[in-house]
Amino acid sequence: MKNVYDIRKEKQLQFVLSTEHSLTVPSHKKLQSAAVVVNLFYTEKVKCYCQYLDRLPEDIVLYIFSSKEETLLEAKKYLNNKNKNIIYLNKENRGRDVSALLVAFQPYLDKYKTICFIHDKKEHGPRDKTDVDKWNENLWGNMIASSHYVYNVLNIFETCPELGILFPPEPIGENKMEWFHYSWDENYNNCRKLADKMYLTADIRKEKPPIALGSVFWARKEVLIKLFNIGWKYEDFSPEPMPLDSTISHAVERIFSYIAQDAGYEAGTVMTEKYAAWQLLFLQDNVRMMFSELSERMGVDNINQIRMLHIQTKAILNYAKAHRIFFLYGAGKCGLAVLKLLRENKIEPNGFVVTDDTNCKDSIEGIKIYSLDDIKTKKCGIILTTYYPLQEEMMGTLENYGMDDFFLVFDKKCSKC
Length: 417
What we know:
Helices cover 42% and strands 15% of the residues. The protein contains 15 helices and 14 strands. The protein is elongated. By secondary structure, the chain is an alpha/beta fold. Helix 9 crosses helix 10.
């Protein structure tokens, strides 16, 4: 069984949909079998979210839950004059959005074949306001951007019977970079425990990031059954103020793609054309900046080099530990990258080696620089820290000196070309 993260990549289960038009408008019956379930808490932000809710197709039932009466009243103020089937319901102020779904909505689940769940967010302070605003656009815009967009989402489920759940893309921003990280935080163990409680048959691995980073999705009801069958109560969730991490709510947020796999379905990502364009340009700009820093500080210039350095870390450290005396052959950026890795693990090489020390510095980063002539009589190890094709020339030079105990950090795939 493959991990859901790899399946999404291999099968390209990332959908970019139009908000302006749809090839097919689902039937009245199909729309009535879908429900949009919303949890709102922040009264002052209700108007913003109602702008999205106002775009929903009229036939879809809309459930709005809140633990605050004033929030429900504010939502009614903006939506009551709209010709929509809207149900407003109170919930307990415990478990936030996750309890809205698993406790408050539980009695209504069997009425529907397809469910969209979404909730509000608020920044913790001025520093993360821009990122949270973009995250809200990610969640709400990529779930219910317009009637045509919702039609397109429902049509995907119709035309892709193997697809069980769709999430918004992992959030990114200036300070929020879950898209780049493995995103478990401290929640792998509690997610694993929840999976074991449901006897899930799914590939859950710490080294593979979860696709779902929040309880926002479009899903077939069949995907959700096993999670709902736990029989959740408000008391199952942490009381307020809820901790920022490591609670049962954070485990639930990351479990959805795995319950889909257990139910025999695949998990994917969906976004609007506008969001996809912004995401691509944002990533291009920032990945370019990051690689510029990586090149300057660590001597890596492409993804293969990063991957190889990551893969080779253990082997580099083992080679260094196995040699009482060893040198780094190559005093350029790659050599500095390996030096940094060694020092992070409290290992110090005996020096840098260069083929020709003419016009060369005496030392770099406090490490003495030697020529091959200086060390040719020593019994030592050599770590080659250069890329192909220069490394072939250096291996030939070592062979001429009768030095065959060396370790190659990078291979041909890591060429700078």
